[in-house]
Structure formats: C-alpha cells, structure tokens
Amino acid sequence: METKELLEKLKDQDPDVRLSALNFIFFDMLAEGKDVPSDLFPDIINCLGGEDDLNHQAVMILNSLTLNDEIYPYLAEAQVDISSLIDKWKKDLDAVEQDPGNIFGSKVFEKLKNAAKHGIDISPVLEKLKVFSFNKDSDHVENASKALCYHYFNTDHWRGVVDLLELAHIRLYALHSIKYAVKKGKDISPILRDLEFIMRWEPGINAFEKSLPGQVLTHHYLNKNEHEKIAQFLESDSSSKIGAVCACTYHGIVNGYWDTVKEFLESDNEYVVSFAAVAFEEALDEEKDISPAVPALANALDNGPEDSRFSILKILYLASEKGVDISDAFPSLLRAVTAFSVSPLNRSSIRFLYEAMNKIVKREFAKKKDIPEVKGMVDEVLKKEKDPAKIMKLKRIFSELYRNAFSSLITNPLQGDGIRLKEIPKKKGERFRTGVRRRLPR
C-alpha cells in the first residue's frame, strides 16, 4: 500500500477504514522492519482517543515509533489527548519494577526522557520515575533522572531541579540536562546560586565532570550577554576556566566566530585545547559545520601541546566520518605519523590518524584529477623532513595509504565508474606506482 493511499485511509471518517490502515502499518510495515514515513505521523496520532480497537492499535504503533526521535515533535504538537500512550508507558514501568531484567520494558525510560525533552507532559509517571532515579543500584538512573529534570524545566519546578543536583549519583545527569536546556535558551536564573556553589565545590571524578557547572553557567551568561562573568571564568585557574572554554568554543562554532575558536586552539595550555576539542565533538554530533576551522585544527596538531594531540586527531577523524573535507589537514596528519611511537598508550591515536588520512586519500583519489595534488602535499612534507628514518617512515605510510585507496577505487572497465589502471601515474622510478596491490607491507 502506497503512502498516499494510507494517508487517505487514515483521514477517512469510517473507523473501520482507518483501522485497516493502522493494521497494515503495524503488521506489514513495522513487523517487517520497514520505515514508516513521517507524513503518516500526524494522522496516526489523531487516531488516539478514538474507538477502543482504533486507539489500541494507534498506541501500539506509536509505542514502536517512539524508539525514533523523529516522532516526538509531532507528539508535542498533537491536538488530541495522548494520555493513552502515557498509560502504556506507565504499564511498562510497572513491568520493569516487577522484573528489573525486562529488556522490552526498559526502553520506556529513554522514551520518557525524549518525551519530556520535547515538552510532553509526563506527570502521570513522575512518582515511578522518582523510584528509579533515587535507587543508586538501578540500571535506569540516567534516563529516569534526565526525564525528571526535563519535566521540572517544562513546569518551572526549580526546587525539583535543585533536589536532583543535591544527590551525588544523579548530579552529573542533571547537569547534562540543564546544559541541554540552557543551550536551547532556557533561563536558569532561579538556580544560579546552586550551580555556582557546585562549581566552587568541584565535584566529579574527572576534568570533564568538574567542568560541567562552568559550561552550564557560561552558556547562561552567553545567552544574557554578561561577558564580564565569562572573562572571570576564563582568567581563573579552576575547572570553571575549562568549562568556559568549552562553552565559548561551541558558541563560536555555532555563530561563526572563528577567530575566537582559533584563539583557543592556539593556546599552549593542553586543557584549553582539549576542551575546545570537546566543543567540536558536540558540534559534530549536532551536524554543525566545522569546515572553516580545519586549518586551525591542523595547526593545533602541528604546534599544540603534546597531550592534546589525541583530542585533535579524534576531531579530524570524526569530521571525516561526517563528510567534512579535511584535506587541508593532510600534511599535518602526515607529520604526526613521525611524532607518535607505537605503544599501548597511543594506539587509539594511531588508529584515528590512519583512519583520517585514509579518508582524505580516498576522497582525493576519487576525484581523479587531484591525484597529483595529494602527491604534491606529500612531497612538500618530505622536503621539510631532515631525518632519513622519518623520511622512510613517511614514504612507507603514504605507500600504504595509496594502496588502500586504490584497492577500493579501481574497477573492471565493464563494471561502471571507477579509476582505471591506465589512469594511475606511471612515471619511471615513481615509488608509489604499485598502489594497485592489495597486500599491505610488513
């Protein structure tokens, strides 16, 4: 059944016709793992509150669809009563309470978190959520406490937010929820004193956790244009500084303040550079464009503090995974090869390094006409390197990258597009002309 026909049936006045459409969606689409088009969401939601069979089937479909974030804005804007869906989630909570190992019911916590995050009223399940949130041994503390925190924001119940902040096993999740809300423009003035106290106290087991209160407060002061407060954070020597760096870098990426971003990446403080990288990771998760910062990231890889290089490598790798063109960083990545020795402590760095370079080489080689450009970047790096051992290492690495790139791009002429063998540079004496082999060097 086509989407157009389903839409017509879901809008039909006859309940039996609408039920047949819902049955098709449930048994012929969801049961077979097919995607339900978002065009159908409003009409499926409108079936809630109807006749028993119609309402039941709509609840079952929506309960499955709520595993996907895409449905929640439609539920938040629904013009019908969705309490029957909330009741279903309440029953799932009861099932998990009776059987903590209930795999299917446990997904309800994420659904409730996402519902509250999008402003949907989850009041009927608050008491149940508190039981799971306050139980330190529960496997569902994170999503349950985040759902509570989002609900308290939606209802301006600030005392409830403070109660969550005062519980050590929940505090971190509450801070993440507050950070999300304040990034969306929520005014958190009623809890500023509590957050400032937590920031001075510096709870947490690592630098990132300790920086969260500073991140939250800096986002708030950025929203309020209170730059003096932010300057105080940046000039301090406490965790508020790195929290402010992270928030200001994110703000710079989102609003295109690339000079500010570049300034943080050029710092000689490893924590400043590393927490600027944390902001880049957040921005990439939210599909923000970071391409203008690639040259600054490359410079940080070349000249930044030694201990921050892993963070920069990770960002370049994640950016290449997201399709960002990081070819400007290729020379810096090649130079970084000689800076890392293979040891258990930096194998992750080496993996990010190779993956990022492979992405660049494959992309450039796929353009065909830019093969000499990639080779030119390598030659430039080799000219500046004086150590013969490092030169040999660079040549060996590039030879491997060259082979890996061509192994996936060369095709049989009868199999459509691809780089043909005759297009490979075959200059006499060219070290890298054997790129068609699949076997890696020892």
Q: Globular, elongated, flat, extended or rod-shaped: what is the shape?
A: globular
Order of helices and strands: HHHHHHHHHHHHHHHHHHHHHHHH
Q: Report strand %.
A: under 5%
- Put simply, the count of helices is 24
Low-confidence stretches: 409-442
**Average pLDDT for all residues:** 83
Number of strands: 0
- Name the helicity range: 55-70%
Helix vs. strand class: mainly alpha
Question: Could you tell me how far the N terminus lies from the C terminus, measured between alpha carbons in angstroms?
Answer: 56 Å
Instruction: Characterize the biggest β-sheet.
Output: none
Gyration radius, in Å: 27 Å
Give your account of this protein's structure.
By secondary structure, this protein is mainly alpha-helical. The protein has a domain at 1-81. Helices cover 66% and strands 0% of the residues. The chain contains 24 helices and no strands. Helix 8 (108-117) runs parallel beside helix 10, helix 15 crosses helix 16 (239-255) and helix 22 crosses helix 24 (388-409). It is globular. It starts with a helix and ends in a 33-residue tail after the last helix. Mean pLDDT is 83; it is low at 409-442.
Topology of helices and strands:
Layout: H1 3-10, H2 15-30, H3 41-45, H4 52-65, H5 72-76, H6 83-98, H7 103-106, H8 108-117, H9 126-134, H10 141-154, H11 158-165, H12 168-183, H13 192-201, H14 207-223, H15 227-235, H16 239-255, H17 258-265, H18 270-285, H19 294-303, H20 309-321, H21 330-339, H22 347-366, H23 371-384, H24 388-409
